[in-house]
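Project outcomes to date are best conveyed with an example. Our students and postdoctoral researchers have been running inverse folding experiments weekly, and each run begins with a structure described purely in C-alpha coordinates. The record below, which covers 578 residues, was selected by the lab manager from last quarter's runs and is presented without edits.
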Protein backbone atom coordinates (compact mmCIF):
# COMPACT_ATOMS: atom_id res chain seq x y z
CA UNK A 1 0.00 0.00 0.00
CA UNK A 2 1.26 3.45 -0.90
CA UNK A 3 2.11 5.57 2.15
CA UNK A 4 3.53 9.00 2.87
CA UNK A 5 7.04 7.61 3.02
CA UNK A 6 6.76 6.39 -0.58
CA UNK A 7 6.26 9.82 -2.15
CA UNK A 8 8.32 13.00 -2.33
CA UNK A 9 7.29 16.59 -3.07
CA UNK A 10 6.93 17.28 -6.80
CA UNK A 11 9.61 19.57 -8.23
CA UNK A 12 8.00 22.94 -9.06
CA UNK A 13 9.41 23.01 -12.59
CA UNK A 14 8.06 19.58 -13.56
CA UNK A 15 5.81 19.82 -16.64
CA UNK A 16 2.18 18.73 -16.37
CA UNK A 17 1.97 17.10 -19.81
CA UNK A 18 2.29 13.40 -20.53
CA UNK A 19 4.22 13.41 -23.78
CA UNK A 20 7.83 12.27 -23.36
CA UNK A 21 7.60 12.13 -19.57
CA UNK A 22 6.46 8.58 -18.79
CA UNK A 23 8.36 8.47 -15.48
CA UNK A 24 6.60 11.60 -14.28
CA UNK A 25 3.28 10.19 -15.47
CA UNK A 26 3.83 7.00 -13.44
CA UNK A 27 4.77 9.07 -10.40
CA UNK A 28 1.65 11.21 -10.72
CA UNK A 29 -0.53 8.10 -11.00
CA UNK A 30 0.97 6.76 -7.77
CA UNK A 31 0.05 9.99 -6.01
CA UNK A 32 -3.39 9.97 -7.61
CA UNK A 33 -3.98 6.43 -6.31
CA UNK A 34 -2.84 7.54 -2.86
CA UNK A 35 -5.24 10.52 -2.88
CA UNK A 36 -8.12 8.35 -4.12
CA UNK A 37 -7.54 6.00 -1.17
CA UNK A 38 -7.52 8.94 1.24
CA UNK A 39 -10.81 10.16 -0.23
CA UNK A 40 -12.50 6.76 -0.05
CA UNK A 41 -11.42 6.43 3.59
CA UNK A 42 -13.19 9.72 4.35
CA UNK A 43 -10.04 11.70 5.11
CA UNK A 44 -11.38 14.58 3.01
CA UNK A 45 -13.48 15.33 6.11
CA UNK A 46 -10.27 16.45 7.82
CA UNK A 47 -8.01 17.47 4.93
CA UNK A 48 -9.02 19.20 1.71
CA UNK A 49 -8.09 16.82 -1.11
CA UNK A 50 -7.72 17.63 -4.82
CA UNK A 51 -10.66 16.39 -6.88
CA UNK A 52 -12.81 17.20 -9.88
CA UNK A 53 -16.54 17.29 -9.09
CA UNK A 54 -19.31 17.52 -11.66
CA UNK A 55 -22.06 19.91 -10.54
CA UNK A 56 -25.20 21.39 -12.06
CA UNK A 57 -28.97 21.41 -12.09
CA UNK A 58 -31.00 18.24 -12.37
CA UNK A 59 -31.33 17.27 -16.06
CA UNK A 60 -28.49 19.62 -17.03
CA UNK A 61 -26.55 16.72 -18.62
CA UNK A 62 -24.16 15.89 -15.75
CA UNK A 63 -24.57 12.14 -15.84
CA UNK A 64 -24.46 12.13 -19.65
CA UNK A 65 -21.15 14.00 -19.50
CA UNK A 66 -19.74 11.39 -17.14
CA UNK A 67 -21.19 8.57 -19.18
CA UNK A 68 -19.43 9.88 -22.31
CA UNK A 69 -16.16 10.51 -20.48
CA UNK A 70 -15.98 7.07 -18.83
CA UNK A 71 -17.85 5.30 -21.65
CA UNK A 72 -20.09 3.49 -19.20
CA UNK A 73 -23.86 3.62 -18.88
CA UNK A 74 -24.98 5.43 -15.72
CA UNK A 75 -28.44 5.27 -14.12
CA UNK A 76 -30.82 7.54 -16.01
CA UNK A 77 -34.51 8.23 -15.69
CA UNK A 78 -37.00 11.07 -15.87
CA UNK A 79 -36.70 11.46 -12.10
CA UNK A 80 -33.76 12.43 -9.89
CA UNK A 81 -31.11 9.75 -10.44
CA UNK A 82 -28.01 10.68 -8.41
CA UNK A 83 -28.66 10.74 -4.65
CA UNK A 84 -25.10 10.36 -3.37
CA UNK A 85 -21.59 11.07 -4.68
CA UNK A 86 -20.47 8.62 -7.37
CA UNK A 87 -16.68 8.49 -7.69
CA UNK A 88 -15.54 7.17 -11.06
CA UNK A 89 -11.84 6.22 -11.13
CA UNK A 90 -10.63 5.53 -14.66
CA UNK A 91 -7.30 3.96 -15.52
CA UNK A 92 -5.74 2.94 -18.82
CA UNK A 93 -5.26 -0.82 -19.00
CA UNK A 94 -4.80 -3.55 -21.60
CA UNK A 95 -7.60 -5.54 -19.96
CA UNK A 96 -11.22 -4.66 -19.18
CA UNK A 97 -12.40 -4.71 -15.57
CA UNK A 98 -14.83 -2.82 -13.35
CA UNK A 99 -15.41 -2.85 -9.60
CA UNK A 100 -18.38 -1.22 -7.85
CA UNK A 101 -18.31 -0.85 -4.07
CA UNK A 102 -19.70 1.43 -1.36
CA UNK A 103 -17.82 3.55 1.16
CA UNK A 104 -19.92 4.56 4.15
CA UNK A 105 -18.51 7.75 5.59
CA UNK A 106 -21.17 9.08 7.95
CA UNK A 107 -22.20 5.94 9.81
CA UNK A 108 -25.39 3.92 9.51
CA UNK A 109 -28.79 4.76 10.86
CA UNK A 110 -30.08 2.83 13.84
CA UNK A 111 -30.88 -0.64 12.62
CA UNK A 112 -29.24 0.02 9.28
CA UNK A 113 -26.83 -2.21 7.45
CA UNK A 114 -23.05 -2.02 7.47
CA UNK A 115 -20.77 -1.49 4.48
CA UNK A 116 -19.65 -5.10 4.84
CA UNK A 117 -23.23 -6.15 4.03
CA UNK A 118 -22.70 -4.97 0.45
CA UNK A 119 -20.71 -7.38 -1.66
CA UNK A 120 -18.37 -5.66 -4.09
CA UNK A 121 -19.41 -6.23 -7.68
CA UNK A 122 -16.58 -7.23 -10.04
CA UNK A 123 -17.19 -7.24 -13.79
CA UNK A 124 -15.17 -8.09 -16.87
CA UNK A 125 -15.71 -6.99 -20.45
CA UNK A 126 -18.60 -9.40 -20.88
CA UNK A 127 -20.39 -7.83 -17.95
CA UNK A 128 -19.86 -4.21 -19.06
CA UNK A 129 -23.61 -3.76 -19.66
CA UNK A 130 -24.26 -4.49 -15.97
CA UNK A 131 -22.31 -1.47 -14.71
CA UNK A 132 -25.40 0.76 -14.69
CA UNK A 133 -27.56 -1.61 -12.66
CA UNK A 134 -24.62 -2.30 -10.30
CA UNK A 135 -24.21 1.44 -9.58
CA UNK A 136 -27.97 1.70 -8.99
CA UNK A 137 -27.81 -1.23 -6.54
CA UNK A 138 -24.92 0.38 -4.66
CA UNK A 139 -26.76 3.70 -4.41
CA UNK A 140 -29.96 2.02 -3.24
CA UNK A 141 -27.94 0.19 -0.59
CA UNK A 142 -26.48 3.49 0.69
CA UNK A 143 -29.87 5.21 0.84
CA UNK A 144 -31.42 2.19 2.59
CA UNK A 145 -28.53 2.09 5.05
CA UNK A 146 -28.46 5.77 5.93
CA UNK A 147 -32.25 6.16 5.70
CA UNK A 148 -31.88 9.58 4.11
CA UNK A 149 -33.10 10.99 0.78
CA UNK A 150 -29.55 12.20 0.05
CA UNK A 151 -26.35 10.69 1.44
CA UNK A 152 -22.72 11.76 1.68
CA UNK A 153 -21.53 8.15 1.38
CA UNK A 154 -19.81 7.26 -1.87
CA UNK A 155 -20.44 4.76 -4.64
CA UNK A 156 -16.90 3.83 -5.68
CA UNK A 157 -16.56 2.81 -9.36
CA UNK A 158 -13.20 1.62 -10.69
CA UNK A 159 -12.94 1.32 -14.47
CA UNK A 160 -9.91 -0.23 -16.20
CA UNK A 161 -10.00 -0.32 -20.00
CA UNK A 162 -7.81 0.46 -23.02
CA UNK A 163 -9.86 3.56 -23.92
CA UNK A 164 -9.72 5.08 -20.39
CA UNK A 165 -7.95 8.31 -19.54
CA UNK A 166 -6.22 8.21 -16.15
CA UNK A 167 -8.78 10.38 -14.41
CA UNK A 168 -11.00 10.53 -11.32
CA UNK A 169 -14.33 12.36 -11.43
CA UNK A 170 -17.09 12.72 -8.83
CA UNK A 171 -20.73 12.99 -9.86
CA UNK A 172 -22.91 14.87 -7.38
CA UNK A 173 -26.72 15.04 -7.14
CA UNK A 174 -28.28 17.70 -9.34
CA UNK A 175 -29.52 20.93 -7.80
CA UNK A 176 -33.31 20.94 -7.27
CA UNK A 177 -35.43 23.98 -6.47
CA UNK A 178 -38.71 22.26 -5.59
CA UNK A 179 -39.91 18.83 -4.54
CA UNK A 180 -42.55 16.62 -6.10
CA UNK A 181 -45.26 14.43 -4.66
CA UNK A 182 -43.90 11.89 -2.19
CA UNK A 183 -40.47 13.60 -1.96
CA UNK A 184 -39.05 14.88 1.31
CA UNK A 185 -39.14 18.65 1.85
CA UNK A 186 -35.54 18.37 3.05
CA UNK A 187 -34.38 17.06 -0.35
CA UNK A 188 -33.38 20.43 -1.82
CA UNK A 189 -31.49 21.78 1.24
CA UNK A 190 -29.74 18.42 1.80
CA UNK A 191 -28.53 18.34 -1.81
CA UNK A 192 -27.31 21.93 -1.53
CA UNK A 193 -25.49 21.14 1.74
CA UNK A 194 -23.75 18.18 0.07
CA UNK A 195 -22.73 20.29 -2.94
CA UNK A 196 -21.48 23.04 -0.61
CA UNK A 197 -19.08 20.54 1.00
CA UNK A 198 -17.34 20.19 -2.35
CA UNK A 199 -17.72 23.84 -3.41
CA UNK A 200 -15.98 25.00 -0.24
CA UNK A 201 -12.98 22.71 -0.83
CA UNK A 202 -10.31 25.04 -2.22
CA UNK A 203 -8.66 22.06 -3.92
CA UNK A 204 -11.81 20.93 -5.74
CA UNK A 205 -12.16 21.79 -9.42
CA UNK A 206 -15.77 22.69 -10.20
CA UNK A 207 -16.94 21.17 -13.46
CA UNK A 208 -20.00 23.44 -13.81
CA UNK A 209 -22.51 21.91 -16.23
CA UNK A 210 -24.91 24.31 -17.94
CA UNK A 211 -27.45 23.35 -20.65
CA UNK A 212 -27.28 25.54 -23.76
CA UNK A 213 -31.06 25.94 -23.96
CA UNK A 214 -31.23 27.67 -20.55
CA UNK A 215 -30.29 31.32 -19.95
CA UNK A 216 -26.98 31.36 -18.09
CA UNK A 217 -28.40 34.07 -15.77
CA UNK A 218 -30.60 31.32 -14.29
CA UNK A 219 -27.70 28.96 -13.62
CA UNK A 220 -27.36 28.44 -9.88
CA UNK A 221 -24.11 26.50 -10.16
CA UNK A 222 -22.50 29.41 -12.03
CA UNK A 223 -23.57 31.75 -9.23
CA UNK A 224 -22.42 29.34 -6.51
CA UNK A 225 -19.06 28.84 -8.24
CA UNK A 226 -18.51 32.60 -8.46
CA UNK A 227 -19.12 32.93 -4.71
CA UNK A 228 -16.52 30.36 -3.63
CA UNK A 229 -14.14 30.89 -6.55
CA UNK A 230 -14.34 34.61 -7.40
CA UNK A 231 -11.15 34.42 -9.50
CA UNK A 232 -12.62 31.35 -11.31
CA UNK A 233 -9.24 29.61 -11.23
CA UNK A 234 -10.78 26.27 -10.30
CA UNK A 235 -14.01 26.43 -12.33
CA UNK A 236 -14.44 24.90 -15.77
CA UNK A 237 -17.93 25.55 -17.22
CA UNK A 238 -19.20 22.92 -19.66
CA UNK A 239 -22.10 23.77 -21.99
CA UNK A 240 -24.33 20.80 -22.86
CA UNK A 241 -27.29 20.13 -25.16
CA UNK A 242 -26.32 22.44 -28.07
CA UNK A 243 -28.77 20.53 -30.27
CA UNK A 244 -31.68 21.91 -28.20
CA UNK A 245 -30.93 25.60 -28.79
CA UNK A 246 -33.86 27.51 -30.31
CA UNK A 247 -33.37 28.66 -33.88
CA UNK A 248 -31.76 32.09 -33.89
CA UNK A 249 -30.43 31.81 -30.32
CA UNK A 250 -27.09 30.26 -31.32
CA UNK A 251 -25.32 33.65 -31.27
CA UNK A 252 -25.88 34.16 -27.54
CA UNK A 253 -24.58 30.67 -26.74
CA UNK A 254 -21.59 31.26 -29.02
CA UNK A 255 -20.78 34.46 -27.09
CA UNK A 256 -20.98 32.48 -23.85
CA UNK A 257 -18.69 29.75 -25.21
CA UNK A 258 -16.12 32.29 -26.38
CA UNK A 259 -16.14 34.12 -23.05
CA UNK A 260 -17.89 37.26 -24.30
CA UNK A 261 -20.78 37.09 -21.82
CA UNK A 262 -19.08 36.15 -18.55
CA UNK A 263 -15.72 37.57 -17.53
CA UNK A 264 -12.95 35.95 -15.61
CA UNK A 265 -13.20 32.23 -16.31
CA UNK A 266 -9.48 31.54 -16.62
CA UNK A 267 -10.00 28.03 -17.94
CA UNK A 268 -12.56 29.08 -20.53
CA UNK A 269 -15.73 27.26 -21.53
CA UNK A 270 -16.18 23.90 -23.21
CA UNK A 271 -19.08 22.39 -25.15
CA UNK A 272 -20.17 18.78 -25.56
CA UNK A 273 -23.16 17.02 -27.08
CA UNK A 274 -24.50 13.88 -25.43
CA UNK A 275 -27.19 11.44 -26.39
CA UNK A 276 -30.72 12.75 -25.90
CA UNK A 277 -33.68 10.81 -24.55
CA UNK A 278 -34.75 9.84 -28.07
CA UNK A 279 -31.25 8.46 -28.71
CA UNK A 280 -31.44 6.40 -25.54
CA UNK A 281 -34.93 5.16 -26.42
CA UNK A 282 -33.73 3.86 -29.78
CA UNK A 283 -30.69 2.18 -28.22
CA UNK A 284 -27.89 4.43 -29.51
CA UNK A 285 -24.65 3.22 -27.89
CA UNK A 286 -22.13 5.51 -26.19
CA UNK A 287 -19.60 4.90 -28.96
CA UNK A 288 -22.20 5.77 -31.60
CA UNK A 289 -23.12 8.85 -29.56
CA UNK A 290 -19.49 10.00 -29.50
CA UNK A 291 -19.27 9.57 -33.26
CA UNK A 292 -22.50 11.54 -33.62
CA UNK A 293 -21.05 14.27 -31.38
CA UNK A 294 -17.90 14.56 -33.48
CA UNK A 295 -20.00 14.75 -36.67
CA UNK A 296 -22.34 17.35 -35.13
CA UNK A 297 -19.56 19.80 -34.28
CA UNK A 298 -17.85 19.21 -37.64
CA UNK A 299 -20.95 19.79 -39.75
CA UNK A 300 -23.31 22.04 -37.77
CA UNK A 301 -23.29 25.80 -38.16
CA UNK A 302 -22.12 27.93 -36.35
CA UNK A 303 -19.92 25.53 -34.34
CA UNK A 304 -18.06 24.28 -37.44
CA UNK A 305 -16.85 27.84 -38.09
CA UNK A 306 -15.00 28.21 -34.77
CA UNK A 307 -11.23 28.06 -35.35
CA UNK A 308 -10.36 26.72 -31.88
CA UNK A 309 -11.49 23.08 -32.09
CA UNK A 310 -10.29 22.38 -28.53
CA UNK A 311 -13.54 23.95 -27.28
CA UNK A 312 -15.66 21.06 -28.55
CA UNK A 313 -16.27 17.41 -27.83
CA UNK A 314 -15.78 14.76 -25.18
CA UNK A 315 -12.36 13.75 -26.50
CA UNK A 316 -10.96 17.26 -25.98
CA UNK A 317 -12.66 17.48 -22.57
CA UNK A 318 -10.93 14.25 -21.49
CA UNK A 319 -7.58 15.70 -22.49
CA UNK A 320 -8.25 18.94 -20.61
CA UNK A 321 -9.38 17.13 -17.47
CA UNK A 322 -6.38 14.78 -17.54
CA UNK A 323 -3.97 17.72 -17.69
CA UNK A 324 -6.03 19.62 -15.11
CA UNK A 325 -5.91 16.72 -12.67
CA UNK A 326 -2.12 16.55 -12.96
CA UNK A 327 -1.92 20.29 -12.38
CA UNK A 328 -3.99 20.30 -9.21
CA UNK A 329 -2.17 17.25 -7.83
CA UNK A 330 1.17 18.89 -8.50
CA UNK A 331 0.08 22.16 -6.85
CA UNK A 332 -1.65 20.70 -3.81
CA UNK A 333 0.25 17.55 -2.87
CA UNK A 334 3.11 19.20 -0.91
CA UNK A 335 0.56 21.04 1.20
CA UNK A 336 -1.41 17.83 1.79
CA UNK A 337 1.71 16.04 3.01
CA UNK A 338 2.44 18.87 5.44
CA UNK A 339 -1.15 18.89 6.75
CA UNK A 340 -1.10 15.12 7.29
CA UNK A 341 2.21 15.35 9.15
CA UNK A 342 0.95 18.24 11.28
CA UNK A 343 -2.29 16.50 12.25
CA UNK A 344 -0.40 13.25 12.88
CA UNK A 345 1.96 15.10 15.25
CA UNK A 346 -0.98 16.72 17.06
CA UNK A 347 -2.75 13.36 17.39
CA UNK A 348 0.39 11.74 18.84
CA UNK A 349 0.65 14.58 21.37
CA UNK A 350 -2.96 14.15 22.45
CA UNK A 351 -2.51 10.38 22.72
CA UNK A 352 0.61 10.79 24.83
CA UNK A 353 -1.16 13.27 27.11
CA UNK A 354 -3.77 10.62 27.92
CA UNK A 355 -1.12 8.44 29.51
CA UNK A 356 -0.96 4.66 29.48
CA UNK A 357 -4.22 2.91 28.75
CA UNK A 358 -5.45 0.28 31.24
CA UNK A 359 -4.45 -3.25 30.31
CA UNK A 360 -7.47 -5.17 31.62
CA UNK A 361 -11.11 -5.13 30.58
CA UNK A 362 -12.35 -4.05 34.02
CA UNK A 363 -9.76 -1.28 34.25
CA UNK A 364 -10.71 -0.05 30.76
CA UNK A 365 -14.37 0.05 31.75
CA UNK A 366 -13.48 2.03 34.86
CA UNK A 367 -11.32 4.41 32.81
CA UNK A 368 -14.15 4.91 30.32
CA UNK A 369 -16.74 5.63 33.04
CA UNK A 370 -14.34 8.09 34.68
CA UNK A 371 -13.89 10.01 31.44
CA UNK A 372 -17.65 10.02 30.83
CA UNK A 373 -18.24 11.43 34.32
CA UNK A 374 -15.63 14.14 33.69
CA UNK A 375 -17.30 14.94 30.39
CA UNK A 376 -20.76 15.32 31.92
CA UNK A 377 -19.35 17.41 34.77
CA UNK A 378 -17.85 19.85 32.25
CA UNK A 379 -21.11 19.75 30.30
CA UNK A 380 -23.09 20.59 33.48
CA UNK A 381 -20.77 23.52 34.15
CA UNK A 382 -21.58 24.89 30.71
CA UNK A 383 -25.30 24.14 30.41
CA UNK A 384 -26.51 24.48 34.02
CA UNK A 385 -23.96 26.73 35.70
CA UNK A 386 -23.31 28.98 32.69
CA UNK A 387 -19.54 28.73 32.99
CA UNK A 388 -17.44 30.21 30.19
CA UNK A 389 -13.64 30.24 29.73
CA UNK A 390 -12.06 33.33 31.31
CA UNK A 391 -10.38 34.19 28.01
CA UNK A 392 -13.67 34.10 26.05
CA UNK A 393 -16.10 36.94 25.43
CA UNK A 394 -18.80 34.54 24.22
CA UNK A 395 -22.16 34.23 25.94
CA UNK A 396 -22.75 31.25 28.21
CA UNK A 397 -24.94 28.41 26.97
CA UNK A 398 -27.94 29.49 29.15
CA UNK A 399 -27.52 33.07 27.91
CA UNK A 400 -27.49 31.93 24.29
CA UNK A 401 -30.57 29.79 24.89
CA UNK A 402 -32.33 32.72 26.58
CA UNK A 403 -31.69 34.88 23.50
CA UNK A 404 -33.04 32.10 21.27
CA UNK A 405 -36.12 31.75 23.49
CA UNK A 406 -36.74 35.51 23.37
CA UNK A 407 -36.59 35.44 19.58
CA UNK A 408 -38.98 32.49 19.57
CA UNK A 409 -41.35 34.30 21.94
CA UNK A 410 -41.39 37.40 19.74
CA UNK A 411 -42.13 35.27 16.68
CA UNK A 412 -44.97 33.43 18.41
CA UNK A 413 -46.66 36.38 20.14
CA UNK A 414 -46.95 38.26 16.85
CA UNK A 415 -49.03 35.48 15.27
CA UNK A 416 -52.81 35.38 14.93
CA UNK A 417 -53.13 32.24 17.05
CA UNK A 418 -51.24 33.75 20.00
CA UNK A 419 -53.50 36.80 19.89
CA UNK A 420 -56.69 34.85 19.24
CA UNK A 421 -58.69 37.02 21.68
CA UNK A 422 -56.52 40.13 21.37
CA UNK A 423 -56.29 42.17 18.17
CA UNK A 424 -53.00 43.24 16.65
CA UNK A 425 -52.26 46.02 14.19
CA UNK A 426 -54.22 45.65 10.93
CA UNK A 427 -56.67 43.22 12.58
CA UNK A 428 -60.38 43.83 12.82
CA UNK A 429 -61.55 44.60 16.34
CA UNK A 430 -64.73 45.43 18.26
CA UNK A 431 -65.30 47.35 21.49
CA UNK A 432 -68.28 48.31 23.61
CA UNK A 433 -68.18 51.98 24.53
CA UNK A 434 -71.18 52.85 26.64
CA UNK A 435 -73.98 51.03 24.89
CA UNK A 436 -72.46 51.27 21.43
CA UNK A 437 -70.73 48.40 19.65
CA UNK A 438 -67.80 49.81 17.73
CA UNK A 439 -66.14 47.90 14.91
CA UNK A 440 -63.04 48.88 13.00
CA UNK A 441 -59.46 48.16 12.03
CA UNK A 442 -56.60 48.55 14.52
CA UNK A 443 -54.25 51.23 13.19
CA UNK A 444 -52.02 51.66 16.24
CA UNK A 445 -51.38 50.22 19.71
CA UNK A 446 -49.72 52.78 21.96
CA UNK A 447 -49.08 52.50 25.71
CA UNK A 448 -51.70 49.78 26.09
CA UNK A 449 -54.31 51.82 24.20
CA UNK A 450 -55.91 50.76 20.92
CA UNK A 451 -56.75 53.15 18.09
CA UNK A 452 -59.41 52.08 15.59
CA UNK A 453 -59.94 53.79 12.24
CA UNK A 454 -63.66 54.10 13.06
CA UNK A 455 -63.46 55.79 16.48
CA UNK A 456 -62.44 59.45 16.44
CA UNK A 457 -62.56 62.17 19.10
CA UNK A 458 -65.94 63.08 17.60
CA UNK A 459 -67.31 59.59 18.28
CA UNK A 460 -68.03 56.43 16.32
CA UNK A 461 -67.78 56.96 12.58
CA UNK A 462 -67.91 53.70 10.58
CA UNK A 463 -65.33 53.77 7.82
CA UNK A 464 -66.53 53.41 4.24
CA UNK A 465 -63.51 51.43 3.15
CA UNK A 466 -64.42 51.60 -0.51
CA UNK A 467 -65.62 55.21 -0.35
CA UNK A 468 -64.14 58.65 0.05
CA UNK A 469 -63.35 58.20 3.73
CA UNK A 470 -60.95 55.30 3.16
CA UNK A 471 -57.87 55.91 5.42
CA UNK A 472 -54.60 56.21 3.54
CA UNK A 473 -52.07 57.01 6.29
CA UNK A 474 -51.67 57.31 10.02
CA UNK A 475 -49.71 60.12 11.68
CA UNK A 476 -48.51 59.82 15.29
CA UNK A 477 -47.82 62.94 17.34
CA UNK A 478 -46.77 62.16 20.88
CA UNK A 479 -49.79 60.63 22.60
CA UNK A 480 -52.14 61.61 19.79
CA UNK A 481 -52.87 59.50 16.74
CA UNK A 482 -54.20 61.18 13.63
CA UNK A 483 -55.60 59.45 10.57
CA UNK A 484 -55.34 61.00 7.15
CA UNK A 485 -58.31 60.17 4.96
CA UNK A 486 -58.36 59.94 1.19
CA UNK A 487 -60.09 63.33 1.00
CA UNK A 488 -57.03 64.87 2.63
CA UNK A 489 -58.69 65.59 5.98
CA UNK A 490 -56.83 64.60 9.18
CA UNK A 491 -58.95 63.33 12.07
CA UNK A 492 -57.75 62.52 15.57
CA UNK A 493 -58.48 59.00 16.81
CA UNK A 494 -59.86 58.27 20.27
CA UNK A 495 -57.90 55.75 22.39
CA UNK A 496 -59.70 52.64 23.66
CA UNK A 497 -58.63 50.81 26.81
CA UNK A 498 -57.43 47.24 26.29
CA UNK A 499 -60.04 45.92 28.75
CA UNK A 500 -62.82 47.16 26.47
CA UNK A 501 -61.64 45.72 23.19
CA UNK A 502 -61.85 42.27 21.63
CA UNK A 503 -60.80 40.79 18.36
CA UNK A 504 -63.46 40.84 15.67
CA UNK A 505 -64.31 37.16 15.09
CA UNK A 506 -65.06 37.86 11.44
CA UNK A 507 -61.70 36.28 10.44
CA UNK A 508 -62.94 32.94 11.80
CA UNK A 509 -66.03 32.81 9.60
CA UNK A 510 -64.28 31.50 6.45
CA UNK A 511 -62.56 28.77 8.48
CA UNK A 512 -65.83 27.77 10.15
CA UNK A 513 -67.64 27.76 6.84
CA UNK A 514 -64.92 25.59 5.32
CA UNK A 515 -65.41 23.02 8.12
CA UNK A 516 -69.22 23.14 8.42
CA UNK A 517 -70.51 19.83 9.91
CA UNK A 518 -73.42 17.86 8.52
CA UNK A 519 -75.35 17.91 11.79
CA UNK A 520 -76.26 21.01 13.78
CA UNK A 521 -74.62 23.38 11.39
CA UNK A 522 -75.29 26.37 13.66
CA UNK A 523 -73.19 24.87 16.48
CA UNK A 524 -69.49 24.28 15.67
CA UNK A 525 -68.19 21.36 17.71
CA UNK A 526 -64.89 20.75 19.47
CA UNK A 527 -63.55 18.80 16.48
CA UNK A 528 -63.82 21.90 14.30
CA UNK A 529 -62.13 24.00 16.98
CA UNK A 530 -59.25 21.52 17.31
CA UNK A 531 -58.81 21.41 13.53
CA UNK A 532 -58.69 25.22 13.27
CA UNK A 533 -56.12 25.45 16.07
CA UNK A 534 -54.03 22.68 14.47
CA UNK A 535 -54.14 24.51 11.13
CA UNK A 536 -53.00 27.77 12.71
CA UNK A 537 -50.26 26.00 14.69
CA UNK A 538 -48.92 24.41 11.50
CA UNK A 539 -49.23 27.64 9.53
CA UNK A 540 -47.84 30.10 12.08
CA UNK A 541 -45.88 28.21 14.73
CA UNK A 542 -44.18 25.42 12.78
CA UNK A 543 -41.36 27.50 11.32
CA UNK A 544 -40.27 29.33 14.53
CA UNK A 545 -40.65 26.10 16.56
CA UNK A 546 -38.53 24.13 14.10
CA UNK A 547 -35.90 26.87 14.14
CA UNK A 548 -35.77 26.87 17.95
CA UNK A 549 -35.40 23.08 17.95
CA UNK A 550 -32.55 23.11 15.38
CA UNK A 551 -30.76 26.03 17.06
CA UNK A 552 -31.04 24.32 20.47
CA UNK A 553 -29.69 21.08 19.03
CA UNK A 554 -26.74 22.90 17.49
CA UNK A 555 -26.11 24.74 20.78
CA UNK A 556 -26.01 21.45 22.72
CA UNK A 557 -23.77 19.81 20.13
CA UNK A 558 -21.28 22.65 20.39
CA UNK A 559 -21.43 22.44 24.18
CA UNK A 560 -20.68 18.70 23.98
CA UNK A 561 -17.71 19.30 21.68
CA UNK A 562 -16.37 21.96 24.03
CA UNK A 563 -16.83 19.68 27.05
CA UNK A 564 -15.07 16.80 25.28
CA UNK A 565 -12.25 19.05 24.12
CA UNK A 566 -9.61 17.96 21.61
CA UNK A 567 -8.40 15.11 23.82
CA UNK A 568 -10.95 12.58 22.66
CA UNK A 569 -11.49 11.11 19.22
CA UNK A 570 -15.25 10.70 19.29
CA UNK A 571 -18.25 12.82 18.44
CA UNK A 572 -19.50 13.73 21.89
CA UNK A 573 -22.76 15.09 20.47
CA UNK A 574 -23.79 11.49 19.74
CA UNK A 575 -24.28 11.08 23.49
CA UNK A 576 -27.35 13.30 23.15
CA UNK A 577 -29.11 10.69 21.03
CA UNK A 578 -27.91 7.57 22.84
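After processing, the design step wrote out the following sequence:
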Amino acid sequence: MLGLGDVQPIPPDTPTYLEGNEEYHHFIQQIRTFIDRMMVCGLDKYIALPMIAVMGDTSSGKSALLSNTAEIELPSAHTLTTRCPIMIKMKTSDTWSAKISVKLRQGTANGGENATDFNDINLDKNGWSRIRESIALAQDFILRTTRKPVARDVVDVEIHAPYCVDLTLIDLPGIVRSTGRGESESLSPEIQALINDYLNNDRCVILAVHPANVDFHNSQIMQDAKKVDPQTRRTLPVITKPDLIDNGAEGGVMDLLLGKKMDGFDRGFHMIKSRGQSDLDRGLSIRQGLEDEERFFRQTDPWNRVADRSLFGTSELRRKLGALQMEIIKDSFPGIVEEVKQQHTEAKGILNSMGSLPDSASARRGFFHLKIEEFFQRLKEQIIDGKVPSSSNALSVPAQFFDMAETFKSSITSTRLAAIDRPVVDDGAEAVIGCTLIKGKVLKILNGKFFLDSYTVKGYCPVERDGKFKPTATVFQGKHVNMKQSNGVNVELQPIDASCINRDPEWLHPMLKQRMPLKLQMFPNDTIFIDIVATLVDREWKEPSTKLLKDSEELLKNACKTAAGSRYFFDASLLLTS
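The CA atoms of residues 212 and 253 lie 7 Å apart. Residues 1-21, 107-112, 465-470, 566-578 have pLDDT under 50 and may be disordered. The training component of this project remains on track.
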